[in-house]
Design a protein that fits this description.
Structural class: alpha+beta
Radius of gyration: 44 Å
Strand order of the largest sheet: 34-35-36-38
Helix content: 10-25%
Largest sheet: 4 strands, antiparallel
C-alpha cells in the first residue's frame, strides 16, 4: 500500500484526464487521459463546446465602424480573444485546432476540433472609437516657465493653452484638433484636452511647464559682462582663464590668470526691477477681443469695454486683480492699451491684440422663425429641396421690417442643410446659424392626411343634442368619405355634431357640426350667426358707397367669419353698406350697414363697431334660435393636443390667430 514514487512527488490531472507526475527534482512524466479514464456511459461523452467556456476580453477593441470591421480590426479581435484565453504561462486554454473567426459586426465564432461552436456577441468585443482614440495631441517642444509649477496663475494657464494650441497646428497654421475641442489647464499645469464628443486626452503638467530660475541674477550679471567683452566675431577679448565673480550687491570682480583684478561697481551693472518688470501682464484671449465698429477710432464706451476686458484677464481664481493696487489702464483711439503701475513704469498691449472690427454677423441680429412658423417636413433628418426652399423663405420672412423689406444686408445668402440647420452667410463672409430643430418639425398625421367633409349631411332631430344613433351615423359618414384614414384613427362626435378626428400620433382635425348635420327643413341661415367685424369702414357717402368701399366692407365681413361661414358662402354689399350673406343652400343672412360703416369723425378717425345686430333669412333679429358665438368651420390644420370642448377649440383658434411675433436668436 506504500507509494513507489519519491516523497514530494506531485500529480496533477487535466480536464481530459491526462495526468502529469512532477518529481522532486522537477522532471515530469505524463499519462494520457485515455489510458486512465473512460465514460461511464458512452452517451455521457461531452462535446468541446460543453467542456469549454471561452472568456470575453476585458477591454473591447476600438473600431471605426462597429457594423463594418476592417480585416485588420477583425485580426485585432481574434488576438484579443486568443489573449483572453491563455493561462499564466501564456498557453492557450482552448483545445488544439480551435479556430476563431470574426463577422463584420464583430460577432466572434469559436469553432472547436469536434466541429461544435461557441459565439461571442460583437457588442461584447468591439466599440466605436471616440475622438480621443482618433486623435493624439502633440506635446509642446518648449515648456512654459512659471513662478510656481504647483500653482499656476491664470496668465500662466493661458500661456500653456496657447502653447498646446500652437503645437497642434499644421503648416498652414490650422488646428489639427477637431472643431469644438477645448483645452483647460489645472493649477499644477496638467492639460486636459476635451473633444466635441466629451472624450478626453491629458498631458501631465511636468511635460508643459517648468519653474523659473529666480536665483540666476548673478549668472545674468556674469553673462552681461562676458557679452560686453566680446569682439565682432563673438570671441572673448579677455585672457583665457579669466574668472568673473559677482557679489551680493552686484559688484563685479574680474580675476585674470596672473591673479590681478579689475572691479565694476554694482550700480553700473544692475538696477532694481520696476513694477513692469515684476508683473506679467496677461493679454485677453482671441475669443475675448472687444468687437468695435471702427478699430481706428474707438468710442468711449468701447474703450471702457477694453479696460474691463484687460482687468478681467488679470484676475486670479478668486476674482481678485493680479496687478498692484493703484495700477491704471488707459486705451487709445486705436485700441492700444497702456498699463501704468504705481511706480510710473508701463506695459503696453497693441490694439490689434484686444480689439477687432465687428463682422456683419456681429452687427445683425438674426431673427428665428416663431414656433408657429416652423416648416412642416416629412423627415427632419433629410429635407427635400422643396422643403429647404420653404425654410429659406421662412427665415427671410422672419427677417423683414414692417414694410416687407429685408433687415439683412444685401448679398446675404441663406442655405439649409439636410437636417434643417440654417447657415446665414453675410457679404463679408461671417456667418450666423440656426439649429434645424428651431425651424423645422416633422409632419403629424393630421398634416399628412386630407379630410373630406361628407357630401350629404346627416338629418337629426335636434342639431344641438344628437342621439347616440345619430352620432354613429355621423361617424360612419366621415369614414365613408375618408376610406384612407390611418389605422388606429378615432372619430368622436359631440352633442352638436362636431366631429374630432384623432390620429394615432395624437394630432387631430375638427369638422364643425353645421357641416355634418342638419334638421329637416332647417337652413344654414338657421344654424349660422354672422360675426360683425370689429372695425367699421369709413365712407364718404353712407348712402352711395364706392366700389372700393364695398370691397373693403366685404373683406371685413369675410375676414371676421373666415372660420364661421361654410365654403361657397357669397357676401354682397349694397350701396348703403348693408351686407347680404348667401349660403350654399340659398338661405340668407344680413348685417346692417350701421354695424359696418361710419362717416368720418372730426379727427378723421373711423369709429369702432359696438353693435352686433343682424337679421337672418326669416327677417328675425340674429340670436333668436341660434348659438350666441360663431361656430368653427372644418379645420384643415394640424394642431396637436388633447381633445377640447367646442368652446375651448374656438379659444385655441383665436389664440393662434394672435401668434405672429418673431423670436430673436438666443446668444
Amino acid at each position: 500500500g506504500d507509494s513507489t514514487l519519491p516523497d514530494g512527488t506531485k500529480i496533477t490531472v487535466d480536464n481530459d484526464g491526462t495526468a502529469t507526475v512532477t518529481y522532486p527534482d522537477g522532471t515530469k512524466d505524463t499519462i494520457d487521459g485515455d489510458k486512465l479514464v473512460e465514460p461511464a456511459n458512452p452517451s455521457d461523452t461531452k462535446t468541446d463546446d460543453q467542456t469549454n467556456d471561452p472568456k470575453v476580453p476585458g477591454d473591447k477593441v476600438k473600431v471605426d465602424n462597429p457594423t463594418k470591421l476592417t480585416d485588420d480590426e477583425k485580426e485585432d479581435v481574434v488576438k484579443a480573444v486568443e489573449d483572453a484565453n491563455k493561462d499564466d504561462n501564456g498557453d492557450s486554454t482552448l483545445p488544439d485546432g480551435t479556430k476563431i473567426t470574426v463577422d463584420n459586426d464583430g460577432t466572434t465564432t469559436v469553432t472547436y476540433p469536434d466541429g461544435t461552436k461557441d459565439t461571442i456577441d460583437g457588442d461584447q468585443l468591439v466599440e466605436k472609437k471616440n475622438d480621443a482614440d482618433k486623435n493624439e495631441p502633440n506635446v509642446p517642444g518648449d515648456k512654459v516657465k512659471v513662478d510656481d509649477p504647483t500653482k499656476l496663475t491664470d496668465g500662466e494657464k493661458g500661456d500653456v493653452v496657447k502653447t498646446v494650441e500652437d503645437a497642434n497646428k499644421d503648416d498652414n497654421g490650422n488646428s489639427t484638433l477637431p472643431d469644438g475641442t477645448k483645452i483647460t489647464v489645472g493649477d499644477n499645469g496638467d492639460v486636459t484636452v476635451t473633444y466635441p464628443d466629451g472624450s478626453e486626452d491629458t498631458i501631465p503638467g511636468d511635460k508643459v511647464v517648468e519653474g523659473k530660475d529666480n536665483g540666476g541674477e548673478k549668472e545674468d550679471v556674469v553673462k552681461a559682462v562676458e557679452d560686453a567683452n566680446k569682439d565682432d566675431n563673438g570671441d572673448s577679448t579677455l585672457p583665457d582663464g579669466t574668472k568673473i565673480t559677482v557679489g551680493d550687491n552686484g559688484d563685479v570682480t574680474v580675476t585674470y590668470p596672473d591673479g590681478s583684478e579689475d572691479t565694476i561697481p554694482g550700480d553700473k551693472v544692475v538696477e532694481g526691477k520696476t513694477d513692469a518688470d515684476k508683473n506679467e501682464l496677461n493679454v485677453p484671449s482671441e475669443d475675448d477681443k472687444v468687437k468695435v465698429d471702427d478699430p481706428t477710432k474707438l468710442t468711449d464706451g468701447e474703450k471702457e469695454d477694453v479696460v474691463k476686458t484687460v482687468e478681467d484677464a488679470n484676475k486670479d481664481d478668486n476674482g481678485d486683480s493680479t496687478l498692484p493696487d493703484g495700477t491704471k489702464i488707459t486705451v487709445g483711439d486705436n485700441g492700444d492699451v497702456t498699463v501704468t503701475y504705481p511706480d510710473g513704469s508701463e506695459d503696453t498691449i497693441p490694439g490689434d491684440k484686444v480689439v477687432e472690427g465687428k463682422t456683419d454677423a456681429d452687427k445683425n441680429e438674426l431673427n428665428v422663425p416663431s414656433e408657429d412658423d416652423k416648416v412642416k417636413v416629412d423627415d427632419p433628418t433629410k429635407l427635400t429641396d422643396g422643403e429647404k426652399e420653404d425654410v429659406v423663405k421662412a427665415v427671410e420672412d422672419t427677417n423683414k421690417d414692417d414694410n416687407g423689406n429685408s433687415t439683412l444686408p444685401d448679398g446675404t445668402k441663406i442655405t439649409v442643410g439636410d437636417n434643417g440647420d440654417v447657415t446665414v452667410t453675410y457679404p463679408d463672409g461671417s456667418k450666423d446659424t440656426i439649429p434645424g430643430d428651431k425651424v423645422v418639425e416633422g409632419k403629424t398625421d393630421a398634416d399628412k392626411t386630407d379630410v373630406t367633409v361628407p357630401g350629404t349631411k346627416v338629418e337629426v332631430g335636434d342639431p344641438t343634442k344628437l342621439t347616440d344613433g345619430e352620432k354613429g351615423q355621423v361617424e360612419e359618414a366621415i369614414k365613408d368619405a375618408n376610406p384612407n384614414l390611418p389605422d388606429g384613427t378615432k372619430i368622436t362626435v359631440a352633442d352638436d355634431g362636431t366631429a374630432t378626428i384623432l390620429y394615432p400620433d395624437g394630432s387631430y382635425k375638427v369638422i364643425d357640426g353645421q357641416d355634418l348635420v342638419t334638421k329637416p327643413g332647417q337652413t344654414t341661415a338657421d344654424q349660422v350667426t354672422p360675426v360683425v367685424p370689429g372695425d367699421k369702414v369709413t365712407v364718404v357717402d353712407p348712402n352711395h358707397l364706392t366700389d372700393a368701399e364695398k370691397d373693403q366692407v366685404k373683406t371685413n365681413v369675410e375676414k371676421a367669419n373666415q372660420n364661421n361661414f361654410p365654403a361657397g358662402t357669397v357676401v354682397m354689399v349694397a350701396d348703403d353698406g348693408t351686407a347680404t350673406i348667401t349660403y350654399p343652400d340659398g338661405s340668407v343672412d344680413q348685417i346692417s350697414a350701421a354695424d359696418l360703416i361710419t362717416k368720418p369723425t372730426a379727427a378723421g378717425q373711423a369709429g369702432k363697431g359696438t353693435g352686433t345686430t343682424t337679421t337672418n333669412g326669416q327677417g328675425a333679429p340674429a340670436g333668436q334660435g341660434k348659438a350666441d358665438q360663431a361656430k368653427t368651420l372644418p379645420q384643415t390644420g394640424n394642431e396637436q393636443g388633447s381633445l377640447l370642448a367646442a368652446s375651448g377649440l374656438g379659444m385655441l383658434l383665436l389664440g393662434m390667430l394672435g401668434l405672429g411675433g418673431k423670436r430673436k436668436k438666443e446668444d
